[in-house]
UniProtKB/TrEMBL annotation:
One BP annotation, GO: GPI anchor biosynthetic process
Membrane-spanning ranges: none
Record-annotated Endonuclease/exonuclease/phosphatase domain positions: 34-246
Record-level GO cellular component terms: membrane
Name of the protein described by the UniProt record: Endonuclease/exonuclease/phosphatase family protein
GO terms for MF: endonuclease activity
Key words of the record: Endonuclease, Hydrolase, Nuclease
Length: 255
């Protein structure tokens, strides 16, 4: 082990689709419960999908609706650094991806990867400054489209972002909701970007995460480059199946 590796702490990452702070079918607002559950995980960096930036109607009719954007409410005092990428805009508000970090976010950029049609998608790229690391850590929060043809184009856009924005030797974490129920992303991301999926590496197959109550599909992923992973886990059904329609993933990243 190098001196740099020995002095750089492991990075615990988590990815979760927040479903805009509501239970399945929008029956109940559970963002405060979700915040407590995310806090208990103790992750250093949290990748969020479907997080609301603002919604005028919900703010006036939903009890306990936070004054701040949802990503700020979730970050609170635990994650002093956060970035938000607005993807879907509608008359009453907008939602997108967010990254919360205990370490400084020194740069962030949101990439619009929407394909023709009403479905808006984005990739939020953040650069994190880690103690003891020779290079900054790059993190990309992903939420891909529902159509296979859209996902294939978005995977190529992701590879192009990595090629043009991220130094070849820098640690890279790509996490989020890939909607890749056909499991076609692995080969593309390995061939064109050198990314390895952490559950495939550890256990031979991706983790099933959707629907959270009885997971059948491996939609959520964590990919890494220039890093190793220790014992990635799917968080348990209790309480998560009540808090999201996707089971969250957690992994300990070693730089």
């Amino acid at each position: 082990m190098t001196d740099t590796a020995a002095s750089t702490p492991p990075l615990t990452v988590m990815t979760v689709n927040t479903h805009k702070g509501f239970t399945t079918f929008n029956r109940k607002f559970i963002l405060p419960e979700l915040r407590e559950a995310v806090r208990k995980v103790g992750a250093d960096v949290v990748f969020l999908q479907e997080v609301l930036g603002t919604h005028e109607e919900h703010g006036s009719r939903v009890e306990n609706w936070p004054d701040a954007p949802q990503y700020e409410f979730l970050a609170d005092s635990i994650w002093p650094q956060f970035a938000y990428g607005r993807n879907m805009v509608y008359p009453k508000g907008h939602h997108g991806n967010a990254i919360m970090s205990k370490y400084p976010i020194v740069h962030h950029q949101n990439h619009d990867v929407s394909i023709l049609g009403p479905e808006k998608r984005g990739m939020l790229h953040c650069e994190l400054e880690m103690p003891g690391a020779q290079q900054n850590v790059h993190a990309i929060c992903v939420h891909l489209g529902l159509a296979e043809s859209h996902r294939q184009q978005q995977l190529q856009l992701l590879c192009e972002i990595i090629k043009t924005e991220i130094p070849e030797g820098a640690p890279l974490i790509v996490a989020g909701d890939f909607n890749d129920w056909r499991r076609r992303a692995h080969d593309v991301l390995w061939r064109d970007a050198g990314l390895k999926e952490v559950f495939v590496t550890a256990y031979g197959e991706p983790a099933k995460t959707f629907p959270a109550r009885f997971p059948l599909l491996a939609l959520d992923r964590i990919y890494v480059r220039n890093a190793s992973v220790h014992l990635p886990v799917v968080l348990p059904r209790n309480p998560w199946s009540h808090l999201s329609d996707h089971a969250p993933l957690v992994a300990e990243i070693h730089l």
